[in-house]
Specification:
Shape: elongated
Distance between the termini: 26 Å
Strand content: over 45%
Number of domains: 1
Number of helices: 2
Radius of gyration: 19 Å
Order of helices and strands: EHEEEEHEEE
Strand order of the largest sheet: 4-3-2-6-7-8
Low-confidence stretches: none
Helix content: 10-25%
Number of strands: 8
Largest sheet: 6 strands, antiparallel
Length: 161
């Protein structure tokens, strides 16, 4: 069974992943086994706020991990393509759109007040929301006792499982 979803394109293919690890560890054999898709919600906001002496009208975006509920500010809107992927490749969501929308507003308020030092917010208006999936390669080492990890298919960063 499969479903059409919005996903970011895979920038690093199986051969690139495996050959990169081979260069780092020539005596090991790393296998990029399969791609899994991790669910996120994208939110875009228009903010009217006040900084000391300066009014501000700005757009800001964030992505909320729909499994952990954690947020991150993003510099630009992700580029998506519609792709049909199997249900088995999709990581199951823990949080709904409604949950993540609430998380995103709290995250934006906290981030802007701490990182951008905004004093007050006149208006926070959500302009866009979209679920999307980010591709990750599941990679393992043929050596016994080694742990599996994932490699971000967009950025090439790796993360332990």
């Amino acid at each position: 069974m499969s479903a059409k979803v919005f996903t970011q394109p895979v920038e690093f293919n199986k051969d690139q992943i495996e050959s990169s690890f081979k260069k780092l560890h020539p005596h090991s054999n790393f296998i990029a086994e399969r791609v899994i898709y991790y669910p996120y919600y994208y939110f875009s906001y228009n903010i009217k706020a006040k900084r000391l002496f300066l009014p501000l009208n700005e757009k800001v975006g964030c992505a909320i991990d729909s499994i952990s509920g954690r947020g991150s500010l993003i510099d630009y809107k992700p580029k998506w393509k519609e792709l049909e992927i199997s249900i088995e490749q999709q990581m199951p969501q823990t949080y709904t759109l409604k949950d993540c929308a609430s998380f995103s507003e709290s995250f934006i308020y906290r981030s802007l007040s701490l990182k951008m030092r905004m004093i007050s917010f006149k208006e926070l208006k959500r302009e866009q929301q979209q679920i999307f999936y980010r591709p990750y390669w599941v990679v393992w080492n043929e050596k016994d006792g080694s742990s599996d990890f994932i490699v971000d298919g967009v950025s090439g960063q790796y993360h332990p499982l």
